[in-house]
TrEMBL record:
Belongs to the peptidase M24B family. Keywords: Hydrolase, Manganese, Metal-binding. InterPro entries: Aminopep_P_N, Creatin/AminoP/Spt16_N, Creatinase/aminopeptidase-like, Pept_M24, X-Pro_dipept-like. The keyword Glycoprotein does not apply. One of its GO terms (molecular function) is metalloaminopeptidase activity. GO terms for biological process: proteolysis. The keyword Manganese applies. SMART domains: AMP_N. SUPFAM superfamilies: Creatinase/aminopeptidase (SSF55920), Creatinase/prolidase N-terminal domain (SSF53092). Residues 3-141 form the Aminopeptidase P N-terminal domain. It comes from Pichia membranifaciens. Its cofactor is Mn(2+). This is Aminopeptidase P N-terminal domain-containing protein.
Length: 465
């Protein structure tokens, strides 16, 4: 089966026609450029190409630069413009994709070359077409840049609402990305004898991801140990692990431009310490309570706030919070200094995918970093990723009014853990949800996996997936 680019274009068309006022139904087109190769500054070496996700959504094409896609809303014709052939480049880069192969392998009605763009767009303009695009960044210097309408809010809305709901084909790609990622996390957990520095966690994940055919990760992996587990997007990944207790690894493989995003935590010794397990069980319960409620129609904000309540309940039981009821502590918002981010985000071609409607200006600190501010719908893929952190930087923000609720002496005893986050990728289904992540988050199973790896000793034990 081909990547359903035409189906995607029709979705965008429907959203656009429903949204845009006084639209010309018989004279509208969408036009998007692929990403372009760029050299590193002052260097003749080309940077890796990251395909423009909007171009990819309407084409299914990944590693090709200098291409364009055009969709005619009147007759539903989808046209690809391949990059012009540069004879001199063939000896360096090999043969380019031919129009015949593009028609065979992809979902286009017509395949032309980039040199045909100007006359095609001019011909549409001559019949009074409005040609919408996201931006003209890749071709601003061309004459045809003047023929398109860039930055139209309704066009972005239509693209994002379409990308938000994944079809079966996209879900199959995301399932595969998640499967690769499961295997990588399994490999990292199992390989402690050869992991003595955070860089080794990183290396193990990348090695197993690449072996499975995933050439790019969805984002820079976050490989932390000890107190650095409290830094949310830690990418230094180069500290020694010796003498520490906890590991947090947040990493995901990409598959054909679709992301996965999974976090697992484990004990370096193979046995959770009391404090590490206390935090782990708190986060696991936060995730489980939210998970039970994931289904269409649910307001994501409600699930996020529910996880704050679960955190508060556990912290009261552990004695980390004190001098107040669950309600008083919730109202004080002090839990935000231990759980500063949102419960999750949309996942798709981007790790923090489009359509979530975050409000980073929100005055409510508990909601400011929540990347989904809307009801769940079937076909969305979201992450469920609560976390609890013991970060000196965050705890400094506890106000005079909030500090009576915090048992500072006891909090000190948890600082070495750094933090715990458990993150799974969840497809919202018509009846509820499906967890695309398969790697266990059960702390006792995790202990067994780590211990089994440790028992093999330093003799080069390696999980081959
Ligand atoms: N890996 C980044 C995030 O979980 O959002
Ligand atoms: Mn995430
Ligand atoms: Mn993550």
């Amino acid at each position: 089966m081909k990547y359903p680019a035409k189906e995607h274009a029709l979705r965008v068309k429907n959203h656009f026609l429903a949204k845009k006022e006084s639209v010309k139904k018989d004279a509208t087109a969408f036009f998007i450029a692929s990403a372009k190769y760029t050299n590193y500054p002052y260097c003749d070496q080309v940077a890796p190409l990251r395909q423009n996700r909007y171009f990819h959504y309407l084409s299914g094409i990944d590693q090709i630069a200098g291409a364009f896609v055009l969709f005619n809303v009147f007759n539903d014709k989808l046209t690809l413009f391949l990059p012009n052939i540069d004879e001199d480049d063939i000896m360096w880069s090999g043969m380019p994709l031919s129009p015949e192969d593009a028609l065979k392998d992809y979902d286009f009605d017509e395949v032309l070359y980039a040199k045909d763009v100007a006359k095609t767009l001019k011909s549409l303009k001559s019949t009074n077409f409005d040609i919408y695009t996201t931006d003209t960044d890749e071709y601003a210097e061309t004459a045809f840049a003047k023929l398109v309408i860039a930055n139209d809010a309704s066009f972005f809305y239509a693209l994002d609402e379409s990308r938000l709901i994944k079809d079966e084909y996209e879900i199959s790609l995301m399932r595969h990305a998640a499967k690769i990622t499961d295997n990588c996390h399994m490999a990292v957990m199992s390989a402690l004898p050869i992991e003595t520095n955070e860089t080794h966690l990183h290396a193990e994940f990348v090695y197993h991801s690449l072996r499975q055919g995933s050439k790019f990760l969805s984002y820079d992996p976050i490989c932390c140990s000890g107190p650095s587990c409290g830094t949310l997007h830690y990418i230094k990944n180069d500290d020694e692990m010796d003498g520490k207790t906890s590991v947090l690894i947040d990493a995901g493989a990409e598959w054909k431009c679709y992301a996965s995003d999974v976090t697992r935590c484990f004990p370096i010794t193979g046995k959770f310490s009391k404090e590490h397990l206390d935090v782990y069980e708190t986060v696991r319960d936060m995730q489980a309570q939210a998970m039970k409620k994931i289904k269409p129609g649910v307001e994501w904000e409600d699930l996020h706030l529910l996880t704050h309540r679960v955190l508060i309940k556990h912290f009261l039981e552990l004695g980390l919070f004190q001098n107040g009821t669950e309600e008083e502590i919730f109202d004080s918002k002090v839990s935000a200094w231990f759980y500063p981010h949102g419960l999750g985000h949309m996942l798709g071609m981007d790790t923090h995918d489009v359509g979530g409607h975050a409000n980073y200006e929100d005055e409510n600190i508990m909601l400011r970093y929540l990347r989904i501010r809307r009801k769940l719908e079937a076909g969305m893929v979201v992450t469920n990723e609560p976390g609890v952190y013991f970060s000196p930087f965050l705890l400094e923000h506890i106000s005079k009014e909030q500090e009576k609720f915090v048992n500072k002496e006891l909090v000190e005893k948890y600082m070495y853990v750094g933090g715990v986050r458990i993150e799974d990728d969840i497809l919202v289904t018509p009846d509820g949800h499906e967890n695309l992540t398969g790697i266990t988050s059960d702390p006792y199973e995790i202990e067994k996996i780590v211990q089994k790896g440790l028992s093999k000793g330093k003799g080069g034990f390696h999980v081959i997936v």
